[in-house]
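User: My advisor asked me to double-check a structure prediction for Delta(1)-pyrroline-2-carboxylate reductase 1 before group meeting. I don't want to rely on an old file, so could you generate it fresh from this sequence?
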Amino acid sequence: MTALLDAAATAAALPYPALADALEALLRDDTVVVPPRLVQPLTGGGSLFVMPAADAALAITKLITFVPDNPAHGRPAIQGDVVVFDARSGQRRAVLDGPTVTARRTAAVSLLAARRLAPRPQGPLLIVGAGVQGRAHLEAFAAGLGVRAVQVASRSAASADALVAHARGLGLEAQRVDDADAALADCPLVVSCTPAQAVALRARPRPDAFVAAVGAFTPRMVEWAPDVCRHLAATGTLVVDTRDADHEAGDLLQAGLDVAALPTLADVVRDTPAWRRARRAGGPVFFKSCGWAGWDLAAARCALAAAAR
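Assistant: Sure, here is a fresh prediction for Delta(1)-pyrroline-2-carboxylate reductase 1 from the sequence you gave:
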């Protein structure tokens, strides 16, 4: 029978530490195949994403829509599903809630990168952008890194206050900050997850900072000022999530950087020559995340393993 998981059941099947482990295992698996995703523009400025992936056991397709101005109208920006099939029989195994998978696997990718790359993973943490991804990253970094203190910046004070209240409900020290640039000086962990329609950060992160930049996932989107990205390239270490970032990493592309020359998270996990050549002993680490159907395949693996238990 097909398991049909709603948002709550999907979240319960994807605890952040276990999901980060599943992501790392996927990056070590040579049977994984992920073709380019299809992005179909929609009337009104939205997009339809069709994202397939497969390994030796499973095949998945994520079908989601992204409409950036939906939250202003009381609707979620991301809607859709992840459909999971048995790769040998073709039988449908599960349908997962697409927005929940997207939120949790994106935060878990940042968690995996922080595990590997953050000079000071204990924080404090600065979250810039208090929407779905802000909440997911807060929960992921608290569960997976043991972060105990967080500052939240958002263009919406009400959204920032709501995320601060959620953090306090998790037992964290939390406060709203109105100047994200100034807060960079206090926080060695930074997550930027804004709508990425305009530059949101113009100051330089700390020399011991780890930045997970997740908001800009098309060439036209941007969160970080180009001169900051160029400074980070000159003084620190830049890593992208996958090679798809070569044509999607808006922050880095708009800074004129050669994204194709940067190591990927798979290079880090596998300790490849590309990673050994690129890494610096000191300086900030900037991790650019754009999304990839492989992350959804890892989430499907994690969810089915949870169901089997």
